[in-house]
Design goal:
This protein is mainly α. The protein has 1 helix and no strands. It has one helix at residues 34-59.
């Protein structure tokens, strides 16, 4: 029986059950750390509260 050649890159054994290896996929585009998203959301909430409190005097709503 001939020996099987191993694919370069170290293929996973067939026990993956059809799961996708996401760590191999690298997409181009804009990347942000999760901390920046949390800070931006908190800043938006604070801005909303400030506008609700003093926005009536400034904007006249």
């Amino acid at each position: 029986m001939p020996k099987r050649k191993r694919a370069e890159g170290g293929a996973l054994p067939p026990t993956g059950a059809g799961l996708i290896r996401y760590f191999d996929e690298d997409t181009r585009g804009f990347k942000l750390k999760p901390l920046y998203i949390i800070i931006a959301a908190a800043a938006l909430v604070v801005l909303e509260i400030v506008l609700r409190l003093v926005g009536v005097d400034i904007l006249g709503f």
